[in-house]
Design a protein that fits this description.
Number of strands: 7
Helix content: 40-55%
Strand order of the largest sheet: 1-6-7
Length: 196
């Protein structure tokens, strides 16, 4: 008998949990977009994590809507993920944030993100000094916007990265007019009681 990562893993039947969504479009609007809008309104560390999780994992909902019943351990799923990341490299960064939020540490060889946090800087008159990298200037500190620091040392604004990911999903999957994901007649898996 093979282990959980062997050939039998990709043939295991999937079990869908019914959240009451009638379409992928409904999940997109109620979960992914709502979390993103909350982050835009209040760009906190917590809201960055809350927005990153569905912004990354919506790809699994897309996968299952396109291929109902197919396990995400199928070799085609890995290729699907690779193609998504090739088209939108920021997806890999959001994946790292979402996975690290869940697991704290990551053991994948392809981890790109080293830090996802804000910093502080002093504001006010000249005479600033630093104590343990915390800038102090007459007691006035300003928190800098959240940023993602990659393993290559480059720094990217978290809001811009998340915006690129949402824009990618929106243009590639959620502006379709053919009802492919909206629960219409052409939907392969309506994400309801009739799912396999």
């Amino acid at each position: 008998m093979e282990g959980s990562s062997g050939p039998t893993a990709s043939r295991k039947a999937v079990q869908y949990v019914d959240f009451g969504f009638t379409s992928l479009q409904e999940f997109w609007a109620e979960i992914v977009v709502a979390a993103y809008e909350k982050f835009k309104t209040e760009p906190t560390r917590a809201n960055a994590i809350f927005a990153s999780v569905p912004a990354w994992h919506v790809h699994e909902w897309i996968w299952h809507a396109q291929d109902p019943g197919k396990n995400n351990r199928d070799p085609q799923f890995k290729k699907f993920q690779e193609n998504l990341i090739a088209a939108c490299p920021e997806l890999a960064w959001i994946r790292d944030v979402a996975d690290a939020a869940k697991h704290q540490s990551l053991s994948r060889a392809n981890v790109k993100v080293r830090r996802a946090a804000s910093g502080t800087r002093s504001v006010g008159p000249i005479g600033t000094f630093a104590v343990n990298e915390l800038a102090i200037n007459d007691g006035k500190l300003e928190v800098t916007p959240l940023a993602i620091t990659l393993s290559d040392g480059s720094v990217h604004g978290f809001a811009e990265v998340l915006s690129r990911v949402i824009d990618y999903w929106r243009t590639q999957y959620f502006q379709k007019t053919d009802n492919r994901f909206s629960g219409g007649a052409n939907t392969k898996c309506p994400l309801s009681d009739s799912c396999p």
